[in-house]
Amino acid sequence: LFLQGHDEEAVVDMGKISSTINTNFEKEELESHRAVYIGVHVPLGKPGRRRHRHRGHRHHRRKREKDNDREDGRESPSYDTPSQRVQFILGTEDDDEHIPHDLFTEMDELCFRDGEEYEWRETARWLKFEEDVEDGGDRWSKPYVATLSLHSLFELRSCILNGTVMLDMRADTLDEIADMVLDSMIASGQLDESIREKVREALLKRHHHQNEKKLSSRIPLVRSFADIGKKHSDPHLLERNGLLASPQSAPGNLDTGKSVDVKAPGTGGSRENSTVDFSKVDMNFMRKIPSGAEASNVLVGEVDFLERPIIAFVRLSPAVLLSGLTEVPVPTRFLFLLLGPVGKCPQYHEIGRSIATLMTDDVFHDVAYKAKDRNDLLSGIDEFLDQVTVLPPGEWDPSIRIEPPKNVPSQAKRKAPKFPNGSTPTGRDLKEEGHHAGPELQRTGRLFGGLILDIKRKAPFFLSDFKDALSLQCLASILFLYCACMSPVITFGGLLGEATEGRISAIESLFGASLTGIAYSLFAGQPLTILGSTGPVLVFEKILFKFCRDYGLSYLSLRASIGLWTAFLCIVLVATDASSLVCYITRFTEEAFAALICIIFIYEALEKLVHLGEVYPFNMHNDLNKLTSYSCVCSEPEKPSNETLRMWRTMNKSREDIAWNNLTVSECLEYHGVFRGSACGHHGPYIPDVLFWSVILFFATFFLSSFLKKFKTKRYFPTKV
Length: 721
Known about the structure:
Keywords: Cell membrane, Disulfide bond, Glycoprotein, Ion transport, Membrane, Sodium, Sodium transport, Transmembrane, Transmembrane helix, Transport. The protein is 42% helix and 11% strand. The chain is of the alpha/beta class. Among the domains are: 82-213 and 288-391, Mannitol-specific EII, Chain A; 462-584, no CATH class; 633-686, no CATH class. The strands form three sheets. Strands 1, 2, 3, 4, 5, 9, 10 and 11 form an eight-stranded mixed β-sheet that branches. A three-stranded antiparallel β-sheet has the order 6-7-8. Strand 1 and strand 2 form a beta hairpin. It is elongated. The two termini are 62 Å apart.
């Protein structure tokens, strides 16, 4: 073991192996370290040769091992369950080279190209969920939750247990990584020296990525205004993902057909400047990768010159940008290699999916960064197996892909470190911690303190919120939001006009929504918030208008007073930081209002349909055999009312002057006539066409909209169509 001062560079651990064959250190490297030997017995012979040990020696050996753990910065825990072990690993302090980053995982499989030559072909990728190359197609599948077989997870554990594990390898190129891995395999007896060159040649084969064919034939149809005059390569995007462009690659100098030197991030930085061809980079997918992300490459395949599989798990330190290995220029941190004899390609594929899915797991992802040896990785796999749910094979179809959840559950309980007294944090503690996670929901204790902090946080991004919309790519969203804002305003405006007898109708609602929407977007700092009438507002307006009508009050005056009083209360809430209480509101309130709005919409639609049935009635007791005898005529009223007589005198008409049998429906209603006949209703002749056609439109519109909403996920057309 080597102990170094804090101001000195650590000796490189070339993979946690006991053999140092083919490992050379420069003289300057050795002279710059202060080596201190600690008395740890390292047996050179076969283990277990000395069967009789003195109890005192065993005691001293355990004491020395405990001291070694403390010198390493990790005290050995008194528990040994996988969950506790993982919590212990995650509780260790991070040095600069073991800080976890977001990971992009890519799986390449070794296959024949045109039946002649091997090449690595990309078959799957993971950001958070799995995406596969569709069988026989040139497109990616939708992201879905990966479903793994339990057997493949156990095989992966066996691979890590018996394969080559090299942590904190320092290498600059894929050639150096291959040489170090093969040297380690030969030294440990996993690989025969005679086939070293064949394995090395297979490892260094060309990598074919899925996006290469698509990018070569794709023509960018829509480009934003900000990109006009520029090329597709975006240096700010590369810098956001941890790739520092060279000084020569200014925004105006980047070209899709040119190559740019980029450097991988890290504390020490990469010692290689890899050349990146931006014409082969899918910049749209690059924008989805989080800032500072690193890559994890999974290489699996079968070859005809191996008799048994060879496995290697490599963690680079620092991460290195390996040109051509990953479809996006992201520095590589992890490499998993599995090559085996021909005939077990599906098995190797499932093992590759297992390790790739493990790298996307929040807990194992952190364990992989902080692992000190092979046992830490095995503990991470065991902890993952403890959390796995097994589904019976006869009760579930594995080919069904599970859609990603809208809200991914938190893994804080799995990561929670043990307290000094051995207890774990309760759910209430985690909930309280989550309530005060963001600075926006914390009380300041000052008058308008929260508003002042909001202005300071929003000021740097205020103009960009509006300038970013000046893009052709936003045109579809603008049109959609225009319709989404306009439809409920007009709909509720019409309903308000009926409820308030024209006091507030569609015109007033449209003007009010436009005025308040513009003011809110300019001064509230939230230009994406949609304002407009909703179901609860409609209910409130109906109740308020009925109240004013019953008590003889002016509706519009009272409505203006309510608006001013609401504005005053909002100012008081802002001044006292009352918005910090929002974090304690559950989803019940949101779902209750959403349910109320849905019920109001459904009720109003059905009420309209029932009203049409009353205005345009139809014969409920129709007899097809008597269709020829059905008739409806206008006749004079038997006992006209005084109002009817006054109306006749006003029109200079008398009962005898009116030709009742020749009057139309409107004229009969005008002269207060009476409809008589078997085809008459209360308000006139039966009119079945209006109600029946309205019912057809009602349900056809509903089912058509529902069908079109689900149709976009069907397989009738490609995704672009």
